[in-house]
Amino acid sequence: MLKIYGIKNCSSMKKAFDLLHELGLAYEFHDYKKHGIDPETLKTWLDAQGEAVILNKKGTTWRKLSEQEQQNALNSQDNLIDTLSTHTSLIKRPVLQTSKGLIVGFDEASYRALA
């Protein structure tokens, strides 16, 4: 079963939900705004995809962090995990966990390949 992580009210998430429904793919949704995200999951994602893929530096949440907070987050994986756990909006959306790995960000072609 697919598991999709993100925030309910996000345009990228809406596109992902709509396409998963269109393709008839069953999924479980984990809203990390409501339920948080555990450090082990974040570590797994970072190890598999890397900081550049998981960390959303383009959003307002990153820009609202002070330069010191940004540098601290980038100092080590543990610091980044702490920062992502605290500021879940810094995680790129959606993160779709499939049997073959992760799809980070909405990519229609990758989603269609699952059907």
Oligomer: single chain
Largest sheet: 4 strands, mixed
Lateral arrangement of strands in the main beta sheet: 2-1-3-4
The geometry reads as elongated
Compute the gyration radius: what is it? 14 Å
Low-pLDDT windows of residues? none
Helix content: 40-55%
Task: Give the integer mean of the pLDDT values.
Answer: 96
Feature tags:
single chain; 115 residues; alpha+beta; four-stranded mixed beta sheet; 52% helix; elongated
How would you characterize this protein structure?
There is one protein chain. Helices cover 52% and strands 16% of the residues. The chain is α+β, with helices and mostly antiparallel strands and 115 residues long. A four-stranded mixed sheet has the order 2-1-3-4.
Describe the structure concisely.
The protein is of the alpha+beta class and 115 residues long.
Task: Give the topology.
Blueprint: E1 2-6, H1 11-22, E2 27-31, H2 32-35, H3 39-49, H4 51-54, H5 60-64, H6 67-75, H7 77-86, E3 95-98, E4 101-104, H8 108-112
Parallel strand pairs: 1-2
Antiparallel strand pairs: 1-3, 3-4
